[in-house]
Amino acid sequence: MAGQPNLPSVLPSVPALQDVITTPQQIEAGLARVTNASETPIFICALDKCNRLFPSKERLMAHRKMAHNTDDNCDIITWNE
Questions:
Q1: CA distances from 66 to 30, 46, 54, 60, 71 (A)
Q2: pLDDT value at position 31?
């Protein structure tokens, strides 16, 4: 994946900006699609307001062990379970 940006798991918050460029025709053309839990797994570590996102519960639990020094299975936000 050379050339791909390397973003941190937690990004700093900034105020939202109004989209003044996208036209109604572009929105009607379908720039996005609806997904579901089986296509897009999301697991969020809500322990101590961490709020990091992970693609699997296994990755989240590995993060917890390293970053929070715990195997605690609470404070997980997901739509997959």
A1: 40, 15, 14, 10, 10
A2: 65
